[in-house]
Design goal:
Layout (H helix, E strand, L loop, with lengths): L2 H31 L1 E4 L3 E7 L12 E4 L2 E4 L5 E7 L3 E12 L5 E12 L3 H11 L4 H21 L3 H6 L1 H16 L4 E11 L1 H4 L2
Helix pairs in contact: 3-5
Length: 201
């Protein structure tokens, strides 16, 4: 048996051994790339490739909050929804005169976030998939400001001062109903005084 024949046989044997190893390494690399860790401040939306609008699909869409999730290549796609809290300060009454005649501002301090219940996530997916926290804030803030303006038009600074707890509860209820339509929940609402310069920002 010549050296050339031995070399050819050795190459064939090596190929038979190495080919499965190479295939395994490639498959492992692909699998690791498609294995997604869900941090506490984000929700992973996994949906079938044939689903054109995950926000309106009744099947083929799953929401994952926490843990590890494998997204099948070629079959599934994925997106993220950010859960970071949104903090806003919205003027309630831009300028109100205090007892000494000095301008005193009343403002609303609010904390909001995307709700993690599945019906709310379905609503949030329509607007917030793959949006940054700042982009979500840009979409939520006009709704909040308009709601606060409508609330302020129906009350007075004196009324808020006398019935602050009731006013906070009412504002939180109205905001909650409106923001639930886009999958956002109200974490905190507070009404307090602030310098006029801050109220006008």
């Amino acid at each position: 048996m010549t050296v050339a024949v031995l070399a050819r046989q050795w190459l064939v044997a090596a190929s038979i051994i190495l080919l499965p190893v190479i295939v395994f390494v490639i498959a492992l690399a692909v699998a690791l790339r498609r294995l997604k860790r869900c941090p506490s401040n984000r929700v992973l939306v996994v949906y079938n490739r044939g689903v054109k609008d995950p926000a309106r699909a009744e099947r083929g869409v799953r929401f994952h909050h926490g843990g590890l999730v494998f997204v099948w290549p070629l079959i599934q796609r994925y997106a993220w929804i950010v859960l970071d809290a949104i903090r806003l300060e919205v003027p309630l009454f831009a300028e109100n005169r205090g007892d000494e005649g000095n301008p005193v501002g009343l403002y609303c301090a609010l904390s909001l976030a995307v709700d993690t219940s599945e019906p709310m996530l379905q609503a949030a997916a329509a607007r917030f998939m793959n949006c940054s926290a700042s982009r979500i804030r840009q979409q939520v803030e006009p709704i909040v400001r308009e709601t606060v303006r409508e609330f302020a038009a129906k009350t007075t600074p004196d009324d808020v001062d006398c019935r602050r707890t009731e006013c906070v509860d009412e504002l939180q209820r109205v905001l909650g109903e409106r923001l639930a339509q886009i999958g956002v929940r109200v974490l905190y609402v507070g009404i307090g005084g602030t310098p006029t310069s801050l109220s006008k920002t």
